[in-house]
Design brief:
The chain is of the alpha/beta class. Helices cover about 40% and strands about 15% of the residues. The chain has 9 helices and 5 strands; from the N terminus they run H-H-H-H-E-E-E-H-E-E-H-H-H-H. It has helices at about 10-15, 20-25, 30-40, 45-50, 100-120, 175-180, 185-195, 200-210, 220-240; strands at about 50-55, 70-80, 85-90, 125-130, 165-170. Strands 1-2-3-4-5 form a 5-stranded mixed sheet. Helix 7 runs antiparallel to helix 8 (about 200-210). It is globular, with a radius of gyration of 19 Å. The protein starts with 9 loop residues before the first helix and ends in a 15-residue tail after the last helix. The model is unreliable at about 1-15 and about 240-250 (pLDDT under 50).
């Protein structure tokens, strides 16, 4: 007789994926979604979005092969000239950059388009935003550089070329994070994500939580502060339980 799989306790799941769960919780608030988009998108692209059309989708497009790499949260949106978009926040699970991120993202986008075809919907343009939280530096390279040999202008037309954004908080300073994000809660959240693995985290908490008084003026922000504290608690708990002690928007470069 086979043993039935035991359901995962919420506390265990929180310990296993604290960064993932924290980001998803952050993006439950429409104000924080808009504030995050403003901070990570190129200004001209952000200005094109009709933010009143922004809606969270209650579905995931992660298949079984992508589960080890990503989790996602997706928003539908239109541009001001009424072009439909899907904005996909993808949370990278690995602690190092994937060798062929375009292949993983292409599989992900095909899953979205396959569903749209089955539902007899027009195909959406997809804007992938990859949240990378690994320890190793991310060096961006165009997809055409992944192929053997140099792809010249005549051959490049036959390659499935597309781009994506990478958000790498660890490559940014606190000042750069503050410059990109206007909401105090986002500044605190992303400063904390940047430094959460640092050995001297406790010495940085004063600077990380700078601007905390602004959260006291808003009930939803006060609740979000509780989420930040839970994230801090479970991340430290996970660390104590282990054996060890472009077109890139990495927040430290130009957009």
């Amino acid at each position: 007789m086979k043993n039935k799989a035991q359901p995962t306790h919420p506390d265990q799941e929180q310990v296993r994926n604290p960064h993932d769960r924290f980001l998803k919780h952050t993006l439950e608030d429409p104000r924080k979604v808009k504030g995050t988009l403003e901070g990570v998108l190129p200004p001209k692209l952000f200005a094109r979005l009709n933010l009143s059309s922004l809606q969270k989708e209650d579905t995931s497009y992660i298949d079984s092969k992508l589960k080890q790499f990503f989790s996602d949260i997706v928003f539908s949106c239109h541009t001001k000239d009424d072009i439909p978009l899907k904005i996909a926040f993808l949370f990278e699970h690995k602690s190092y950059p994937p060798k062929y991120p375009h292949l993983q993202l292409l599989r992900y986008m095909l899953e979205i388009w396959d569903r749209e075809v089955k539902e007899k919907q027009p195909l959406s343009l997809i804007l992938p935003i990859l949240i990378y939280h690994g320890k190793e530096a991310w060096t961006y390279r165009p997809f055409k550089n992944s192929f053997s040999g140099e792809i010249d202008s005549e051959l490049v037309e036959y390659a499935p070329l597309f781009d994506f954004l990478v958000v790498n908080f660890q490559a940014a300073t606190y000042a750069q994070i503050d410059e990109r994000f206007r909401l105090p809660s986002l500044r605190i959240a992303f400063r904390l994500m940047k430094s959460i693995r640092d050995e001297d985290l406790s010495e940085k908490l004063g600077e990380i939580f700078e601007g905390l008084s602004a959260l006291e003026k808003d009930e939803s922000e006060r609740k979000f502060f509780q989420t930040i504290i839970v994230y801090l608690y479970y991340t430290v708990k996970k660390k104590q339980g282990t054996s060890d002690g472009k077109h890139v928007s990495n927040l430290s470069g130009s957009r």
